[in-house]
């Protein structure tokens, strides 16, 4: 029943809940006659910087010295508690939060952090009491939603359902991976000149429906999650590029006794239907581990084409992924992948690739945010292509920019654009694409 905590920790609710700190502390500082002087001091500013850059040990040491001189300052106490919490000094953090709430019972953000700590320490009755007090307070909707989820857990709710609907329209400048220079030569065939496909631009509409069923086993740290997703993309003028995907992903998870690490065994079955009849299935299996700082996974995939004429395209893929939370709004990741043909003599399947990427989110305010993501993939093919008289090497670059606006907690609009360019030592694989779209997203929670 504790697995929902890991989901909460990775939720945007936690990131947005922290935005209440400034407003709560500012009011308290105004009440303390001397606290503004402390906040302006070099010691306080330095301690705040240390906390901001996540050097929690130095932040703790400096806030502790400030506390010894100013034991009744709410702001100093609050960040001392947070620093202690980051260093797993739970007893000290608990005592400090209690000291704050005695002095200022209306400091909701301190009570929120205190309640989460009590839950983490498995003090269920005490945590339930604090969350109940918060639920009756004047707090943000996002924080109240997070509190409701905690109370569901404390009241031993074990089954959760959430769903997402996406409706979008967009335009791509290259729906068929057409070449930048459609005419190119084949060195392995006496430099004969051949004609490749030209890029085709078209508008499209896409739809997606996803639903997740999470079952937390009662009085246990295990859970079972079943995810189902259907995705459809149709072009206005070139229906042979249309596709529909059906995805089923079950996963079995375990949350350790410290409620820090979530271990999962993930499965997946995907069916991709394409209008050009190159339909195929993807089966995948692999373990993963996730906490508040990183996500790591190992994954095996089998790509299996349905039609006998396409069976030579079957291949296996092995992936190792590591994603690290560098800052609260910045993730970096790296992936190693290896593809191996199953039963054919094709030279365009076996390859090794290395991926590096980042995801950055800038919050303008609680309703609007901007997301930037970038990815680079270096691929080395194993076999020589006799037509090009070389082994293929690709450099793929991707840049994405999105603007998200929340209508309310269940509805949002996303404007997104992307640029992809693939360089290769073989002219038949050099292409680029620009894509832009607008999407409406609605979420449901039960």
From TrEMBL:
TPR repeats lie at residues 74-107. The keyword Repeat does not apply. Keywords: TPR repeat. The keyword Metal-binding does not apply. InterPro entries: TPR-like_helical_dom_sf (IPR011990), TPR_rpt (IPR019734). SUPFAM superfamilies: TPR-like. This is Tetratricopeptide repeat protein. It comes from Arcobacter venerupis.
């Amino acid at each position: 029943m504790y697995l929902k905590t890991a989901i909460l920790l990775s939720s945007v609710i936690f990131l947005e809940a922290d935005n209440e700190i400034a407003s709560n502390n500012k009011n308290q500082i105004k009440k303390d006659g001397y606290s503004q002087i402390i906040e302006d001091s070099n010691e306080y500013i330095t301690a705040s910087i240390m906390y901001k850059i996540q050097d929690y040990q130095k932040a703790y040491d400096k806030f502790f010295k400030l506390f010894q001189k100013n034991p009744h300052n709410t702001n100093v106490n609050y960040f001392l508690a947070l620093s202690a919490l980051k260093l797993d000094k739970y007893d000290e953090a608990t005592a400090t939060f209690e000291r704050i709430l005695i002095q200022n019972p209306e400091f909701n953000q301190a009570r929120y952090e205190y309640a989460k700590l009590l839950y983490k320490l498995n003090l269920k009755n005490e945590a339930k009491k604090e969350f109940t007090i918060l639920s009756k307070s004047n707090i943000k909707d996002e924080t109240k939603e997070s509190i409701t989820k905690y109370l569901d857990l404390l009241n031993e709710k074990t089954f959760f359902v959430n769903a997402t609907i996406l409706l979008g329209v967009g335009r791509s400048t290259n729906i068929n991976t057409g070449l930048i220079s459609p005419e190119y030569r084949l060195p392995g065939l006496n430099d004969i000149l051949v004609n490749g496909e030209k890029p085709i631009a078209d508008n499209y509409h896409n739809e997606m429906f996803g639903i997740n069923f999470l079952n937390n086993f009662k009085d246990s740290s295990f859970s079972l999650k079943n995810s189902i997703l259907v995705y459809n993309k149709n072009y206005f003028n070139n229906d042979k590029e249309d596709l529909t995907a059906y995805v089923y992903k079950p996963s079995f998870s375990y949350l350790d006794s410290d409620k820090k690490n979530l271990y999962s065994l993930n499965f997946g079955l995907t069916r991709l239907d394409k209008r050009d009849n190159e339909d195929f299935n993807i089966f995948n299996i692999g373990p993963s581990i996730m906490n508040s700082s990183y996500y790591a996974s190992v994954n095996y995939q089998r790509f299996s084409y349905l039609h006998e004429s396409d069976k030579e395209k079957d291949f296996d893929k092995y992936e190792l992924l590591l994603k690290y939370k560098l800052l609260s709004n910045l993730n970096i990741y790296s992936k190693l992948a290896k593809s191996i043909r199953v039963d054919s003599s094709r030279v365009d399947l076996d390859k090794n690739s290395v991926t590096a990427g980042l995801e950055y989110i800038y919050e303008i305010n609680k309703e609007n945010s901007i997301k930037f993501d970038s990815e680079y993939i270096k691929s080395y093919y194993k076999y020589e292509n006799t037509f090009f008289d070389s082994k293929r090497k690709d450099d793929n670059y991707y840049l994405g920019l999105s603007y998200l606006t929340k209508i309310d907690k269940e509805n949002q609009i996303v404007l997104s654009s992307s640029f992809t360019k693939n360089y290769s030592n073989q002219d038949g694989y050099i292409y680029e694409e620009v894509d832009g779209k607008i999407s409406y997203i609605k979420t449901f929670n039960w």
